[in-house]
Predict the 3D structure of the following.
Amino acid sequence: MDQTIRNLREQISLCERQLHALKVQLNNAEERAILEAQAKPEMSFDLSGGGQDAWQMEILGVLGHESPRKNAWPLMPQEYKRYGRQLILPEIGLNGQLRLKNTSVLIVGVGGLGCPAAAYLAGAGVGTIGLVDGDIVEESNLHRQTLHTTEKVGMSKVDSATFYLKSLNPTIKYVSHRTHLNPQNAPDIFRHYDLVLDCTDNPASRYLISDLCVLLGKTLVSASALRMEGQLLILNYPPRAPGDSSGGPCYRCVFPKPPPAETVVTCGEGGVLGPVVGVMGVLQALEAIKVIVDDSHLLSSQSETPSLLLFSAYGTPPFRSIRLRSRRPRCACCSEQPSVSLASLSSGSLDYQLFCGIANPANILNPRERVSPREYAKTLVTTRSVLDRGLPKDHVLIDVRERVQFDLCSIEGSINIPFSQINAPVRSNPSTREQSVASSSSPSTNPDQNAMEVDGKVSEGQRNELVMPWVHFIHKAALEKPIYVVCRFGNDSQVTVKKFKEAGLDLSGRRWVGDIKNGLRGWRTHVDKDFPEY
Amino acid sequence: MADTGDNVHLTVEFSGGLEMLFSNRRKHSVSLPKISPKGTPVTIDFLVKYLCDHLMKDSRKDLFIMEDNVRPGILVLINDSDWELEGEADYEIQPNDNIMFVSTLHGG
């Protein structure tokens, strides 16, 4: 019994000694943790490894640092690591990095240009990045808008991009502006930034952004892209007050008049390749960094001669730099007597949409010359069983989209005569015309064998035709049957019907010639929901 | 084109979509008479009308010219410089000049 009691007492004593030792260790650890927590944001290098020795304090004293608790270095320890590869470039260095850190950049448009531009600027450590966009992510954006992912479809582009950028670089500040820019909201947004990137997709925004940059004294890096080409401009660099001819030109100096609205082609209409617009966005980030780190405006040759960089994926060479004019003495915005002012912006007296015009949908046919997609479908149902050599028997359907689109998808039995060919000029000289037929793609039908035969006949017929290549072809293919014209949205088809009638294809009213309303978009909505949407 | 002493040869380029109006070709060799019918040396102004009448493969002239001038939104570049630095439409064409017409892009 005594033995049992002794054993238990010894065990308790042992545990108490262990407990005491643990408490001492805990106490020491807690003290260290508090010291480290106090020192952490400023600690410039690691002196830990068990308390501060007197000799280390002495060395720090000699080096001029009062205490290791306070940061002795201009950047945080993790910033030296994160930006190390660019910090050692003479063009950047410590001063350049500090400039980047203390700069705020506004990116207007978070699409094909804005995504890569934002990623590289966030990666480079620009202190504040503002993003402006009122759009949501769509599936058709994903091939080029590299910050958005499939699961973000339907989310605001600004939110989607911020989500990505925060994981790329959580140490900088992001400001969200989930709105479309307009003359009323823009000045208050722009004021907070040092530099602006125009990553938008329409002329009205481009004029508004340029005007504001001049009025608020910001340099503007502007880019655009379409199909296989891109353009890049650095405007208002150096940023000087209106009337100061030493400032860089603005968008209005280069383009005083906006292009006619009907000549403006969007990416949705004209198409664009991801890497093409990506290259331009990356170049915007590059030029922005150059502008930010170059306080004296000396590094960049931009300050010497304003220039426009042209990129063309198939160009030889692919990049070309064009010398531009300097500020326009009578510029509406940056000259001595500008008509554009902050007051005129906020009062709404400047209407950028009106200035740039709006391309209205064509409305040139009367209701009798148009059928709805459903009405045409009924016609087709009655004739489908009697397709003759790939073509419907009692009418002709002409699809005027360009060949590449026609090859993507088309209504069965339709014949392709691209709109560009319908607009080919009338040539009176037979030899010239023959040449044009040989070099341009001849009218073609659905690419099945029967249709190809029709195609062959057509080309043969064309060689004897001296006026418009397609007139004779249609006469041959359609005889006196009604002619239906279809296009993508229902605009070009109307123009085509008008041209057909002018060419006498309505046989003085004996033959019906008309179009399908809303084109293939209407066809998909009202008739064939499986018809591809592109 | 045949090289004759009465002609001036130059390269004309189209970009930004304008090439679609000119047989989908970006680069064209063009030969103009040195002296215009008016008896003056040929200028850009003359070239623009010549291109419209002889080289354009699209009847929509308004995509290239408006009111007898190159339409707004097209930059004219003479040997890689904005034509405004060179005298605009009155610039007299020199042998082997490179004249480029660039339509501005707006997509992004």
